[in-house]
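Final report, results section. Input specification for complex C-07:
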Amino acid sequence: MKTKHLGRILAASTVAALMATAAPVAAHAATEPSAPTTSDAPAYVIDAGTSISVPAGSQLPWDWGNSAVLSPVALTAAPSDYDTIRFPAPSADVTQFVSFISSPGEERTPSAWKGWSDFVGSDPKGSLTPEITPFSMVNQPGMSGVKSAGGTFSAGVAYTKTNGLVVVSAYYTTITVDPGGTWTFATPSAPVVITDVATATTLTADPTSVEVGAKTTLTATVTAANSAAVSGNVKFYEGSNLLGTVAASNGVATKQVTIGTVGDHSYTASYVETTVGSDKFLASTSAAVTVTGVPANVTLPPNAPSENALNGDTAHGASASIDGDQVTLSVDPALNGRTVNVFAYSTPTYLGQRTVTDGKITVDVSGLPAGTHKLAIVDPSTGDVLAWAGFDKSTAAAAQSITKQITTEVASNSTPSDGEFSLTNLSGDTVTLDNPTLINGESVSSGALGAFKVTDLRVASTPGWTLQTDVDDFVMGSTTIDKAQLGIAPKVVDQAGTGATAPTMGTAQVSGSASYPWNFAELGAGNYSGVTKYDADLTFTAPAGSAAGTYSSTLTLTLTSK
Amino acid sequence: MKITKPVILGVVAGLALSTVAAVTPASADPVSNSLVLVGSDTLQDVTNALVNGTTVTGSSVRSVTASGATMGSFNAFPTGSLIQVKPAGPYFTRPSGSSSGRKALAASILGNTDPNGTTGTSMTNQVDIARSSSNWGSNADADNGKLLYVPFGRDAIAYAYRASTSAQETVLSHLTTAQLTAIYSAATPTVVSGVTVRPVLPQSGSGTRSTFLSDIGVTTVGTAVRSDSTVAENDATQLSMDGEIIPFSAASWIAQFNGVAPSTLTAATSVHLGSPLAVAAYTGTSTLAPNATYYADGTWGRDTYLIVEYDRVNPSSAKYDATLAAAIDPSRTKSLANFGTAPATSGAVKARFGFSTPSTFTATRAYANLANA
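Structure output:
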C-alpha cells in the first residue's frame, strides 16, 4: 500500500487504528458562548461514543464524527442506566421529538429553524441523547448559511405536537459557529450538587437529679460526618412528647426543662434534616438521657415556744420598732453572732432564721394581720426564748409573692406554729400561644400557663386565702382583642402536706366568654393548704376577621391571705 | 500513521425526506440522494434501520453522510424486480443476496450492464456499497484487490426447522454438522431417528446459503434439496411442511423475534431455530440476544461485511470519495461500520438486530480482477 496520508479512509489493516482517532481539531477558534436561560432545562454536550461531557471550549468540526448529543447533566463517565440522562418526559400530548438548530429566540418556532433532524415518535420516558452535530440535520433549509456565515445559534431537541407545528418544550444550548463550520458550545454552569452528610446527636442533662419544680438543662450537640458546622433545629422530647424546638448554634442547642413529677424522666433530642449550601445534614436522634425527679425539700417550720414563755412586754432588754413591714428587734449585743429562730405572737408564726448583728435582727411581717403582736427570738437548739418585744402593725398584710428558704429543726413538746405563705413561679415569665389553627374561620391557639406553686404552711392561724387572676386585653399595635377570648382551665399538678386541705379550684373560664378578675383557687378559713403546684391550659380564640399577628397581654396572679 | 482532518464537502442541495422510525421496523426502497446499498438479505434489516433512522436503542440514530445527506438501502427481494436507486437513474434488476450485490457493485465500477438480469442497463455509478454475509473466499489480494471488505458485525449461521410434534422437535432441534452434511448431500430425504428431514436452500445468490454449504463441507448439493430462485433467505415461511430445514441467520432470527425487523416468524407455522452445536444460537426467551459462545464458534459464527471500491476510500487515489469513506469509518459514531455500545451509536443498533462485534476490525482487499467478482 502506498498511501501517503490516510484521512478518514479505510484500507487493509487500517480500520482498527482509525477507531482510536476521534479528537476534535480546531481550525478556527469559535468563541464559547454563555448558556441560554430560556431552555426548559440545562443541556450539556456529550460525546455520543463515550457518553462523557465534551470539554468546555472544544472546537468541533461541522461533521464531527463522534457526534455531539445532549444530556440534562454533565457526565464524567458513561451512565450505568441511560434512562437517567433522558430529558424530562413531556406532557401526554407530545407526539414527536426533533433535534434542531435555530437562531436564538426561534427555538420554539419550527418554521424558522435553520435545520432539523428526523421527527421521531415521542417516548414517554423522554428523549435520550438527541444529536445536535450540525451535519446531522437532514432537513437543512438554512444550514448552508449557518455554515458559510457562522454566528450564534441554539441547538437542541424540541418536543412537539400537532405534526411538529407546535413546540411544547425545548432543551438546548447555545453554539457559536465560525464561518466554515467549526463550532463550539455553551456549557451550563454546574448546578450545586447537594451531598448527604450524616450527623450524630448527643444529649446531656445537668443536673440529672432534680427536685420537683426545679429545672435541668438539656444540651444537644450535633456533629456532622464532614466536620462542618451544623445549623438547623433540634427537637427535644420527653418520651414521645415534643417539648420544644430550638435552633442549633454551631451544632449546640440547649433547653431548660422543669421537672414536674417524682421519678425518672427520659429525654431525647432529634436533629431535623437541614440543607446548608451543598451539605444536606441528615436527621439523627440522640440516645435517651434520664433525669430523676426527687421530692421537693419542703421543710416544716420549727415548733414555737408557748406565748406563756414570754413574760411582760419586754424581755432581756429587747425593744421592737416597725417601719412599714420591716420590724427591727434590738437585743443585747452579747447575742451578736447567734443564729436564732424568729417567731411572732399571739398566734405563733414562724418568720425565719436570723443572725444577730450589731445587737439587732430585722424581719418582714407583711404576712401578719394588723394589730398588736410580739416578736421573739428563740435558740434553735434549746427552744429557749432569748429576747422578745411587742409592736403594733397598723395595716393588714398586703398581697405578696415571696419565696423563702426555710431550714429548721423541730423542738419537742411545743405548740405548732405558722410556716411559710408564698406564691412561687416555677416556669418562665412569658407564655406563647403559637401554631394557630383555623377552626370555623376563627384562629385558635393554645398552650400551657406554666407551673407555679402556692405554699401555705400556716398551720396554726389557718386564715385561708384567695388566688385571683386578672388578664389585660390582648393588643397588637392599635388592634385589641378582648380578654374574654382567653380561656383558662386550672389544674392541680401536685398537692402535698400532711394534714393539709386541698384548695377549691375555680370554674374553668371558656374562651370567648371568660370573665376576669376570677379566682383561680380558694382556701377557706380554718385550713392550710400545704404545698400545691398548679398549671393551667390556655386557649385563645381570635374572632373571625381579626388581623393576623402576635397579640400580647399580661396575666397577673395575686395570692391574698384572708 | 498520520490522521488528518476530514475534508468537508459542500452541502448537498435538496431536502431529504423525513422518516418517522419510532418503533415500527424501517422500510426500504427510497430513491437515495447519496449512497446506495444493495445485496445480502441478512444485513438488510439493520442497514435499513440505520439509513432510515431508528430508535430501537432508545436514542434516535440515523446514519447520514458527512454532509447530512441520507442514504438508500434496498431490500434483496422480491427477486427479479426492478429498482431505481438514484434520481433519474436507470432501472436495473434488484440484487438478491451477497454475491448479486457484489456483482452489481463490480458492474457499477466497471460500467458494465446489469449482471443480475437481462435488462442491458448500464450500471455505471449506481451501487456504492454491497452488503455481504459471506467473505471473500479465495479472492483476497492485499496489494491489488479492487474491492474492500469492511467488517460490519458478526452473525452466526444456524438452521430453521418446522416441527409440529415434540418427537420431531427433539430430533430436529439438534442436528450435528455430520448429519447436516449427509442430509444436504443425499439424493433422497434422510430419516433421522424416525423423522424424515427435508433439506431446503435459499436461492443460489444467498450468502447464507454459500456460508452454510461451506460450513458443512458440501460442494455438490444432493437432489433431495429443494431450492430455486424464489426461496428467500431468512424467511421462515419458506418452510412448507414438517421436517423441512433451511439455513438461517441467527442475527436475523433474533431481530425478527425481537420485533426490530419485519418478522416472518409470526406468519410461519411451528418453526424453530435449531443448533448444530451443544448450545443454542441465542439466549433469552421474551427478548433474544446473541449467544456469545455460539457466535464465537469458528465454523458457525461468521463476520459480515460492507463491500466498497477500494480506490474510492483511498485518499491517494484520484477516485477518492470522502463521503463514502466517512460512511464506513468506524470511528464515526453513526457510520455504517461503527461498533459502539452507547445508545446513540450505530453499534448499539446492530446489537439490537442480533449482530455482535466482528472477530476483527481489519478490512480486507480482494478481487484483483473485478470481472471475476
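Confidence is low (pLDDT under 50) at residues 1-28 of chain B. The two ends of chain B are 31 Å apart (CA to CA). This concludes the modelling results for the funded period.
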